[in-house]
Fold this sequence. Notes:
Layout: H1 3-21, H2 23-29, H3 43-61, H4 70-93, H5 95-98, H6 101-116, H7 122-146, H8 152-173, H9 176-179, H10 184-209, H11 221-231, H12 238-263, H13 269-277, H14 286-304, E1 314-319, E2 331-334, E3 344-349, H15 358-365, H16 370-380, H17 385-392, H18 398-402, H19 406-422, H20 428-453, H21 458-468, H22 473-485, H23 492-511, H24 517-525, H25 532-538
Amino acid sequence: MSEIEKFKTLTEEFFREEDRLYPTTTTILGIHDYDDCLEDFSPSGISKQRKIFNDYIARFKALDYNALDTDSRVEYLLVTTGIRRALRILDRTKEWKTDPNFYLEIAIQSLYMLLIREFAPLEDRVRSIINRLKLVPEFLNQGKANLENPPEIFTGVAIETAEGAVHFLESTIMPLADEVPSLKKDIISLTERVINAFKDFREFLEKDLLPRSKGDFAAGPEIFDEMLREDHFLDFEHEQLWKTGQEIFAQSVEALKEGAAKIDKSKNWFDIMLDIKKKYPPAGELLKAYREYMNKAKNFVVEKDLVDIPSGEEIEIIDTPVFNRPQIPFAAYMPPGPFDKMQKAHFWVTPIDPNLPPETQGRILQEHAWAKIQYVALHEAYPGHHLQLVYMSTLPSNVLKRAFSTVLIEGWAFYCEEMMKDLGFLDEYGGFSQLDAQLWRAARVIIDAGLHTRGMTFSEAVKFLEEKVHMAHPSAVAEVKRYTRTPTQPMSYFIGKLEILKLRREFKEKMGEKYSLKDFHQKLLNNGSVPPALSRIRLGLGEMKPLEKILL
């Protein structure tokens, strides 16, 4: 057996072990062998995870890396850094100990993904939901036993999420009793039991954990730089990221000033943006508005022949589930699993709370202005997230199907905004609104580095978004809550776009007269969601050696 064959065999063996360890993630991937299981974070479960990952590190290290071809070397880097990331979570960042949302999100997603993904008849999926419902109370008890000194903001978010979880079970899981009468008794009894378990967990959070939630949410420079290097394959550290954030923020402000002068020289950019934001669809027609522009974006991609659209894909636009609204103030895209045969995605739009004062409702609706919906539609659907992630399902490599670089994923969607704007998809106000969004993404770079490496406080980050980006207070708070829990993800949008633009320039230079924009897009998307630095290798634009410094 050749070394390449040994690597592929070992990789598939490792994936089978990983799938057993993390059945919720496996369901999300679109692999349904463990849909009736749930993660185990008991002491013995954690020890088992640690042992498996350490064993595989040794086995991958024993392979002759130099005997692998280029594609296998890229995959080797993806697999081994993924193992190291798992060990980092287990032994260093310890989200299972410091973030109560770790348990809530797994429990809820384990049920929700089985419901929303139509990969099997409803009755079959409900049987898996029933099996997972049986396991949720004990899983939450594992969380209660493990959690120690989380940051106060994490516990606060978890309290909100636990409230949403109860509503999710009552409004979404319990009605399955009428849809699948043969399982009615089990659905009702188990859902009631899990509702009580979430209520009990919420009480634990409020009365027990919150008073002792004194931890620091910051990842710290060492971990943050490791994530930049090993998760994203970037060749700079937090100080350079901070500096880049300052530069692109200043450039974005200047771009807004220049754009404002073209629209109305008598007004500054912020006043023009305020006028644009006052034009929005009625609260009850948000879903209709997003559907309209997603269809327009898809048609534009086809007309301009920017990239092929795989057959069989679909995107459904629905209200954001209640349990996720605390962390999704506006909208979010939920992709199909890369291994799912049915490539049906969901786009969540967070409805306006009718109980809010009219003035507050109006401020939130401004974030759904017609001008903004134009670029959000292409960012989230065509040719953005949806199209890029659907391409993953077409890839022959299981390693590439599992790769999930936020720098590539978010960078591609942001790149698409600029590319489609340059080609004329956005009108004058849509283009100006996209510049406003660029400022927001630049702010994310600053806040990401600031929160996790430079001692920026939660309130300072909220104030920055309010004063520098002119974001409404509730939205700014929701944004920063997410940033505290996801180091290096907020910077992915702008940094990813810059990396993709760099790849495009290099690809164009290499191809010369044979270059076409469509060819670049096709080749990039056929690499999957790998970090841009690894796409560079697969596109034949760079050498492996600079990346090999992070080998095991």
